[in-house]
Amino acid sequence: MTRGGHVEAVHTVHVRSTAGDKAGDDMRCFLRSSLKPIQAIPLADGYDDLDDDELAIACASHQAEPAQLAAARKLLARAGATVDDLENGLQPGRPDGKLGHNCSGKHAGMLAACRAHGWPQHPYRDPAHPLQQRIAGLVGPVDGAGVDGCGVPTFTMPLGRMAAVFAGVPERIQAAMRAHPELIGGEGSADTDLMRALDGWVAKGGAEGLFCALSPDGVGWAFKVEDGSSRALRPALAQVLGLDAFRTVPVRNSLGETVGSIS
Asked: Is 227 helix (H, G, I), strand (E, B) or coil?
């Protein structure tokens, strides 16, 4: 990151792919929100009539944009649940209470999955709940577990293993994400922008500088910014995946003036 022609910060990005590509260390970290397309599998397995927007919002870290909130409400209705049933918390500055939380689509999907499979709806985020046990089985061997920012279990593993897990996202879920990239992150989100820029790709960002992607030929990718700064992701994605539009990210001040760049 440069400002006024001087280097102000440097971010180290570690990369692994299922095709053997690598940069940096096979760093261990938590899968965080990049796990959401896997967490949506019990939902996808539970219904034959899911619309793409319902499945996409279950994979999303949304920005509470109108279409995103509408999709989350639709999934809640399928679950026969209300906003009060969501076991995520509140995010300051977000509309519609718990529905405005960036993980509300995932939580609505978990409620709907419980209804489909005949599992108790609460406490669906408990690691001992049948839903979380099913998700843990889908993830497979892990180094450890923790609690994500929205209260559900998350898992830690090396990036190489993470790329393999993401490569296992079923085609039905991939198709929904490709059909509605605008629901996955929203305006300005790296995963939404990558899916719009690269035909056939699927991508999902996670907290602390994590980013997973899946190419049309089935190669899984995992990127992790060592210091957790997500601002380093776009230039790293450009360097590795050849995505020219991401190569330089402008740094702007509060007046909107470009005062530096990340490259």
From this structure: coil
* Count, residues in the chain: 263
Q: What is the pairing mode between strands 144-147 and 28-30?
A: unpaired
Tens of pLDDT, residues 88-119: 999 999 999 999 999 999 999 999 999 999 99
Q: CA-based angle 53:151:132, to the nearest 5? A: 70
Structure confidence by residue, pLDDT tens digits, 11-56: 999 999 999 999 999 999 999 999 999 999 999 999 999 999 999 9
Distance CA 68, CA 221 (A): 26
pLDDT at 89: 96
* Neighbouring-strand partners of residue 145: 155
Check: CB of residue 143 under 8 Å from CB of residue 156. Answer: yes
CB atoms within 10 A of CB 230: 17
Instruction: Give the Cα separation of 29 and 77 in Å (integer).
Output: 35
The answer to whether the peptide bond before residue 123 is cis (omega within 30 degrees of 0) is yes
| Residue written as token pair 């079923």 | 170
C-beta separation of 104 from 88 below 8 A? yes
**CATH code: domain of residue 146:** 3.40.710
Tell me how many domains the chain contains: 1
CA dist 145 → 13, 64, 159, 198, 212 (Å): 23, 28, 15, 33, 19
Containing H/E element for 219?
Answer: none
The span from the first CA to the last CA of the chain, in angstroms, equals 7
CA geometry: angle 191, 216, 235, nearest 5 deg: 40
The residue segments making up the domain with residue 126 are 2-262
